[in-house]
Amino acid sequence: MDAVVRLSFYCFAAGSFAFAASAICYLAYAIGRIRVRRMALATPDGTTVVAHDARLEPGSQGVGRFGTFLAWFGVVLQALSIGLRTVAAGHVPLSNMYEFSSMFIFLAGLIYLLFERWYGVRQLGAIVLPLIVAMAAYVWVLPANLREVNPLIPALQNPPLMTAHVGIAILAYATFAVAFAAAVLYLVASHWRVSWLPSADLLDDLGFRAVTVGFPAMSLVLILGSVWAYRAWGTYWQWDPKETAALFTWLIYGVYLHTRSLRGWRGNRSAIILLIAFGAVIFTYFGNYVFGGLHAYGGV
Amino acid sequence: MAQASLNQPVARRALPEIVVDRIWRFFCSVRAAVVEIAILALLVLIGTLRGSSVPQGIADALPITAPLVERWYAWDVYRSIPFAAILTILSIAIAICTINRAPGIWTAIQHPTVTTTHGFLRNAEVSSRFNSASPPDAFAAELSAAIRARGYRTMTQERNGEIHLYADRWRFSRLATFPFHLALIMILAGGIVGVAWGFRENALIVPEASVRELGHGTGLSVRLNDFSEIYREDGSPLVYRSDVTLLKNGEPVHRGSMTVNNPMTFGDIVFYQSGFGQAVSMKIADDAGRVYYDDSLPLGLYQSKLNPDAPAGRIDLPPAGVALSVVAPDENPANAPELDTLNLKPGELFFMIRPLGPDSPIEMPVGATISQGDSVNLGNLTLTFERERRFSVFQVARNPGIPIFFAAAILLVGGLAITFYFPHRRVRGIVSATAEGSVAHLAPIARRDWSARRVFEQLARELGKRLQLDPHLTINEGSRPAI
Question: What is the pLDDT of residues B148-206, one digit of tens each?
């Protein structure tokens, strides 16, 4: 079984490199090309005035397409890694930060690519893919013992609920990462005239659509967590820091959804709330480092 | 005429009416709701950080904040008045907002405005024009049929020789916001019902072969028949299991077992495996043969100064006039060995009695170390260490709010899913006569809604295909970039 776990890690490693290469392609595509024009004007008194004009132009379509290809390649490798680890563990691997973060990398990549396909927007990859690469780097620096497959402790011995509760949490975080990227590009597109960026309306809609996936998912996370807590601890809500951090995140996205129906709030202010909300996601995600309480399973 | 109307006395509203109106508007305001949710989020954040090492980190980095951090840790946010107040305000806001919005939404669903203006169609971010050789009424009927075939409801109305057309689909999804918001109130209600009509025992400690009363008016007692802990080959825990018998009036009424994640249910009462530990079965009697204690005492719930690291237990025996302490061997001798003043070996226990009350038969504490199966005389008492046992800690709960919670969960997720994935799509249009026949100008109600515009574009193309007409799409902004 050790060989399967090792193979799973190799797939993760290969996937990480694919994502890293993909991120470079996306950044090159999004930043585009810098075209410098030089003009020389001869004046009547015989002198010459030289002017330079630097312009940013859309990146090469080929580089963008290659970035997408590499991202799909990374997603497939990541899926393979998780699949092999599932075989080795006997359940979907979601019981420590290594497994949790590997699943995040897979789902963030997949969801981003689905949104790219749905909206026809590739520039978003310049934000999402570096996030994925940062997460892969984090996984690399986690203690090596987390890469081993360990049996579930009694508190986690409910694989169906663990898969549903934790898996949907990662799905929510992944879609929120896409919403965050859309909000960043929205703020760029609405403040600067960047001709090759998608329209601000499209980015606003994309961010909203990502939240319409993430917010119900986050609601399900809270509900399934409550169901599991009721089954394991006899109460569906314990005010545990990880629970309340998830509730905090949910409330911030609730604020975002309400502001969209407020005149003067849709657009810039909503996008800023999305940035804050993603801060809450990061706080909840890495909260295990500072939280005590009942969710101290992450192995960190 | 204008002068006359200006001079007319303005009907002044009574103060209570103004106050009620303002309160009503406050609770209906989305802007106020945003602020309320933000305040709730802030309180939850404060409570979350209270359960973390972050405040301590702040105090360590900035000693000046230490008093504030101390108050932070001391403040139980979730049981505070501000927290209860904001939850109450939000619940009232949800209820009033629902009452306020429901009639308007119902009217918009059942009796929408059919007519529109050319200005609306002209300024729409996306619109479509169909030219037909048919007269307006025939073309409007043909267009309506084609739109209905796409799952839309259509309505037409003639005005000034033009036919106004309204089409929508998934109109009832506008109602889905109500179950979602109702669910939030139901979750709070479920919590209140659980606290008011249920009970929760956080730590019912039962040693093996002992019986403990559950209380809470249940008339039940719990006997722990056996506790077992099973470990894997690598030493990691596999299962903690308690086999128990429930007794009512001394008679067994239920026997079952429970493990972590697999609670035992009896009627509407649920028993959870919560913890376990070491216990000692012992007997205490005096010289006259009077038995003061014949049961198991849990260890590990008390800390003895003789060895703070070791599991210890304590029990007061007022009829005997003594308090008994029991200390077990250190489970981790490597940790602070200097604190261990007893140096007990495996299988040994240290017993000590102290005077309790003015009529105590002893004046000074006396203690002794004995092994399993041995007895010792302490004062006028004989202590017999019968055997080592285990104890289980159970959480026991009866929560009548659970069905409300589950119903709320379904409403919450269902409401969200319908609101987000089946949004109300609306299209308006005017069919006018032209020299060649008629022209239909259609546009969606989709201001700054890129998805709605895209759905409309798709609809227009499908209508063009079905009617074999060019849809002449006009996109003012928000077009998809090339990829």
Answer: 999 999 999 999 889 999 999 999 999 999 999 999 999 999 989 988 999 988 889 99
Using the Cβ of B395 and the Cβ atoms of chain A, whether some distance falls under 8 Å is answered with yes
Yes or no: say if B150 and B466 are a contact pair by the CB < 8 Å rule. Answer: no
- How many angstroms away from the CA of A50 is the closest CA of chain B? 35
For B318-358, the DSSP string reads GGGTEEEEEEPPPS-TTSSGGG-SS-PPTTEEEEEEEE-ST
Q: What is the DSSP string of B369-415?
A: EEETT-EEEETTEEEEEEEEEEEEEEEEEE-TTHHHHHHHHHHHHHH
Find the closest chain A residue to B393 by CA distance. Answer: A233
pLDDT tens, N- to C-terminus, chain B (483 residues): 444 455 566 667 888 888 988 999 999 998 999 999 999 999 999 999 998 888 999 999 999 999 999 999 999 999 899 999 999 999 999 999 999 999 999 999 999 999 999 999 999 989 999 999 999 999 999 999 999 999 999 999 999 889 999 999 999 999 999 999 999 999 999 989 988 999 988 889 999 989 999 999 899 999 999 999 888 877 777 888 999 999 998 899 999 999 988 899 999 999 999 888 889 999 999 888 899 999 899 888 888 888 888 889 999 999 888 999 999 988 777 777 777 777 888 888 999 999 988 888 888 888 899 899 999 988 888 999 999 898 999 999 999 998 999 999 999 999 999 999 999 999 999 999 999 899 999 999 987 788 899 999 999 999 999 999 998 888 875 444 433
DSSP state for residue B305 in the 8-state scheme? T
Would you say the C-alpha torsion B112, B116, B122, B128 has a positive or negative sign? positive
- Please answer yes or no on whether B450 and A205 come within 8 Å at the CB atom: yes
CB A152 within 8 A of CB A91: yes
Q: Is B184 left (phi over 0), alpha (psi -120 to 50) or beta?
A: alpha
**Nearest-5° angle of CA B328, CA B334, CA B340?**
45
CA dist A195 → A58, A59, A182, A189, B219 (Å): 8, 12, 16, 8, 76
Q: Judge contact between A221 and B463, C-beta under 8 A.
A: no
- Are B318 and B356 within 8 A, CB to CB? yes
pTM of the model: 0.85
- Please tell me which residue of chain B has the smallest CA distance to A258: B34
- Residue A118 sits at the chain B interface (C-beta within 8 Å): no
Which of these, A163, A152, A165, A159, lies nearest to A243 by C-alpha position?
A: A165
CB B310 within 8 A of CB B331: yes
**Domain range summary for chain A, segments of one domain joined by +:** 1-32+55-151, 153-300
CA distance A180 to A76: 24
Q: Is the ipTM beyond the 0.90 threshold?
A: no
Cβ neighbours around B134 below 10 Å, total: 15
Answer for the pair B400, B280: CB distance below 8 angstroms, yes or no: no
User: Can you tell me whether residue B214 is helix, strand or coil?
Assistant: coil
Measured in residues, chain B has a length of 483
User: In CATH, which superfamily holds the domain spanning B112-168+423-482?
Assistant: Sirohaem synthase, central domain (3.30.160.110)
Q: Is B49 helix (H, G, I), strand (E, B) or coil?
A: helix
Across the beta sheet with B153-159, what order do the strands follow? B153-159, B162-169, B425-433, B438-444, B126-132, B473-475
Helix A159-191 × helix A125-141 angle, to 10°: 140
Q: What is the DSSP letter of B160?
A: T
Would the CB atoms of A119 and B480 count as touching at under 8 Å? yes
Question: How far away is chain B from the Cα of A157, in angstroms, using its nearest Cα?
Answer: 7
Distance CA A230, CA B191 (A): 13
